[in-house]
Each structure stands twice: as structure tokens, then as C-alpha cells.
Specification:
This protein has 459 residues and is mostly helical. The protein contains 17 helices and two strands. It is globular and about 90 Å long.
Length: 459
Amino acid sequence: MNHPTTFQDRWPQMKRVVLKILRQEPTSQVEWQNLFTDVYSVSTWYPTSIPEIFAELTNEITRHIKQAQERVLRHDEDSALLKAYIQEWSKFYEQCEYLPKPFVRIETNPTGNASSNSASSSEKTTRSTDQVRQLMLESWNNNIFKDIKHRLQNSAMKLVQAERNGESFDSQLVIGVRDSYVSLKTDEKEKYKVYIENFERAYLNETTRFYKQKTGQYLAEHGILAYLHYADQKLKEEEKRARRYLESVTECNSVPLLIRRCVDVFVTEFRLRLVFTLLDHTGDISSLTQALETFIVKQGLDNMLKNKDTIRQDSESYVQQLLDLYRQFSNLVRDAFSNDPRFLTSRDKAFQKIINDISVFQLDMPARATRGATRTTLAESRCPELLAQYCDILLRKGTSTHKKYSSEEIETKIKDVLLLLKYVQNKDVFMRFYKGSLTRRLILDTSIDNELEESIAFN
């Protein structure tokens, strides 16, 4: 009995049909049926060729996706980028339903060999179809989506913000991006994981940021009664918008999370401003300024202690953590108290306590006398040393930190260090470490900017 031709003989004509399907070109019934026949013949007579089939499929799918990526990235404007991506994604996702069908007779196990015939025909059909579909979706994820998902996401968030500001656009642009996040997972248990960790998180954070900027200004300009009406109106708008742009399935809980975020912003802003307004009439707001100082110290130290294992060993992480806290509390004073000098003073007092606190640098060491017991070492704040280390990696040629920033960004970061240094009690300790590293940079001629060095040395 003569065996059919090998995979190498059949693949060129199989490839032509595969490319037609990927490109959504007209495919005749004969071509479609022949693809089924070729796949069945090769996998039956030459089961060792199954890995080759998947390898060639992967190559053609990847090549097709790269071409789609080039077409998408030709667009710089947000709406055009989203429209191009959604157009390419929609066509590709549709083919994820068709291209796997001819390959229902083949599947591979983790070793790349043909799997056993113990499973029922329907089980094998489902698994092998899912396998090719998963290959297509993973290829899309690895070759285009991972590279531009943040750009797509940022573009979508900009359009949502534009809508909040009264501008109109095609809502399908945002919905299409959301759907691509959801559809990229074939595993039902993790279907919404990519969506939750990326799109949902960005949407919630951008909504929170938007209203934190708006509410304080509106309350200050229009008063409490108008603010209550404003908050109620915006909550209704955001719920309607969330039902349009976020997943409404119970696995995600996106809409209730969004409403809770909005309520937190509106109520917190209202309560703080109302208490401030009422107490300010009495001429004595010391109880509120003290409460703010206590709150900032507790929140700040809790945050630092939660990340102490990282930040006490990594100067860049330490500085970034302090800057994030400073900006967070500064925004609170700005939004809730209109940068009232009395509350700025409370912020400064609290931040000075945080930056000079030693608890983050204490270590739990095994006790010598009692088995299983621990003792806490005495410590002093390493803040001056870590700030000096951070200056060194910014100002020394060749460091990985220096390489990833432009000269303007480095100058901004040095100004951030000087801002933090204002709150440090042991500035002489900072200068001792800084001058030691400066000496090495000057001797080895590795300093990137003498003017920046002077701005620190003579600060």
C-alpha cells in the first residue's frame, strides 16, 4: 500500500490555504476541504510530523501578526491607533474560530509527540482545536499585544477622560480594547486576569485621579450644597459609563469597585472640607492640624515598614517611596485644605518624623540565650546614607540608573533629593557620605555634571 506524500510535500499547498484564512481572502470549498484532508493524512501516516505542523503554523501566524503590528504602529494619534488595532484584532480573532478547525485531528503532548488515543473523539477534537486557538492567541499576545498594550491602554484612558470633559468619540474604540484584554485568555479560570490586572486597574486609578483633581476645586468654588448635587450627578454618570466600558460579569465586580472608588473620593473630600470650614469659623483648627499630622505619620510609617526589606537595601526604591508619600500627602493638603499654610506645616512636621524614623532600619536578630527568641537591634536612620548613594548612582557615569535617564530627568531627580534632604536632621551625615563618593567620582573622572555636584555640595 502506498503511503501519501510527506509533510514537506504537502505543506506548501497547506500553507497557501492557511495564509488565505489568516488574511480573510476568499477560500474555495475545495481548498478548505483539501486542508482537512492534508492535515489528516500527514498526522495519520507521519505522526512524528505533528510538531513540524505546529512549528510551521507558529511561524506563519507570527509573521502575519508582525505585519499587522506594522500597520497598527503607523498611527500616532490616539483614536487612529485604537481604530487600527481593533480592526486588526477583530479580523484575527474571527480567524481564531476558523483556522483551528482543520487541525482537530492532531494534538501534541508536552514532549511534542502525538498523544495517545485513550481520550474520546469529542474530547480530542475539543483539546486539539483549543490547542491551535491557544497558539494563535498566545502568538498575538507575545508578538503585538505585550509591546503596545500600555500605549493602547493609555490611549483608551485619554478618550474616557475626554468624554468626562464633554468631548465625544466612538465608544467602540474603548470597548474594543477592553474586549481584547478579555479574549486573550483561553483558560476560563484566568479569562479575566489580564483584564483585571491591566485595563480595570488603569480605569479605576484614572477615575480616582480625575475626581481628586476636580472635587476640591468644585467644592471651593461652588460651596457644599452645590457640591452634593455635583457628587450625585457624577456618580450616576460614572456608573453609566462604567457599565459601558467595564466588564459587568460577577467574576470581575468592576462596576461596584468603580462606584466605591468614586464614593470614597467624593465623601472624603466633602468630610475634610466640611470639618475644615466649620472649625475655621471658630478660629481654632489645632485639633484638625494635629489629626492630620498623626494620620500622615501613621500612614507613612506603615507604608515604609511594609516595604522595608526592599527599601533599606535599595537607595532608588527608598527615595522613590519617600517621594510618592510626599506627593500623596501634598495632594491631600492641596485638595482638602487648599494648601492652607497651617496644614502645610502639619505635613512638614509629619514628613520630618517619617524621614528620620529609625524603625524601618531595625533588624530582628536571633537571641543568644533563648531558643526561638528574637531581639531587635538598635539602629539609626540610614536616610542620609541612602540619599547619598542615590546621588552617586545618578551622577556617576556608567551606572544602570544613570543610563536610563536623560540629563533633564537626572537634574529633576537631584532636585527631588534636595527636597527630601530639607527634612533630614543629620545633614552632616549625608555630606560625609556624599563627599566620599564625590571624591571617588572626581579622581576616576566619572562625574557627569559639575554644576549638579555643586548644587548639592553648596545646598
